[in-house]
Specification:
Blueprint: E1 2-10, E2 14-16, E3 19-23, E4 28-29, E5 34-37, E6 40-41, E7 59-61, H1 67-74, E8 90-92, E9 105-108, E10 111-118, H2 124-129, H3 134-141, E11 146-152, E12 154-156, E13 161-166, H4 174-181, H5 190-196, H6 204-216
Antiparallel strand pairs: 1-4, 1-8, 1-13, 2-3, 5-6, 5-12, 7-11, 9-10, 9-13, 10-11
Helix pairs in contact: 5-6
Protein name: MOSC domain-containing protein
Organism: Sphingopyxis witflariensis
Pfam family, one: MOSC
């Protein structure tokens, strides 16, 4: 599996739609090669380091394939005129949450990255688009995007390839994982909740979420 990288994006912390609360969700395309380290792209920032960034969420990937859906759903929104509307660092065509799996390892430019979780949407998406219901629509449609942790540093630029090199957990598509932990399917999938405990590559915060759901539904 190989996909072309359409854009590499980073963002700086700044005012969020005129509010006092800062954010770096406004990612912009970067020309030329960008270094990749353990915490993601050089020059990329996160305002809320509790919920964004870190080892397990070093790089955010959102498929360009979802943009036609959002244009149809939201109309002529300027944000959807190019990549970065969802705060992504990487934009590609040809990959989505059904074709990418937890633990997948990709050669991203010259770096090696590993899929750690799907993205859990937050209220900032509604605020960014100025429309209520975007976050909820992400949940119901499973158009979440995903995060990588960085296993080997390197560099990347638009036009490079994103090449799958290993798929250790082919039973865990990101759409299925998202539905289990975020989309409300945990109660009806107790066997999957048990099985997920044995997947060490899952991001630490989602391990905690899995454990809470298992406790809530009496899964041991």
């Amino acid at each position: 599996m190989k996909a072309e990288i359409l854009a590499v994006l980073n963002g700086k912390v700044g005012a969020f739609r005129g509010d006092d609360e800062p954010s770096a969700i406004d990612k912009r395309p970067v020309a030329g090669p960008v270094a990749i380290g353990a915490l993601g792209l050089a020059g990329d920032e996160q305002a809320d380091r509790v919920h964004h960034g870190g080892i397990d969420k070093a790089i955010h990937h959102y498929p360009a394939d979802h943009y036609p859906f959002w244009r149809e759903h939201l109309g002529d929104v300027p944000l959807l005129g190019g990549p970065g509307a969802f705060g992504e660092n990487i934009s590609t065509a040809g990959l989505d949450e059904d074709s990418v799996f937890l633990g997948d390892r990709f050669r991203l430019g010259t770096a090696l990255v590993e899929v750690s979780q799907a993205r859990q949407p937050c209220w900032k998406l509604d605020h960014r688009f100025g429309v209520k219901g975007v976050m909820a629509r992400v949940v119901t449609t499973r158009r979440s995007g995903w995060y990588y942790r960085v296993l080997e540093s390197g560099q990347v630029q638009a036009g490079d390839g994103l090449i799958l090199v290993e798929r250790p957990y082919p039973e865990w598509s990101l759409s299925s994982l998202f539905a289990l932990l975020i989309g409300g399917e945990a109660k009806s999938r107790p066997d999957d909740l048990r099985a997920l405990e044995r997947v060490p590559v899952l991001a630490e915060t989602w391990k905690v979420r899995r454990a809470k759901l298992a406790e809530q539904y009496g899964v041991t």
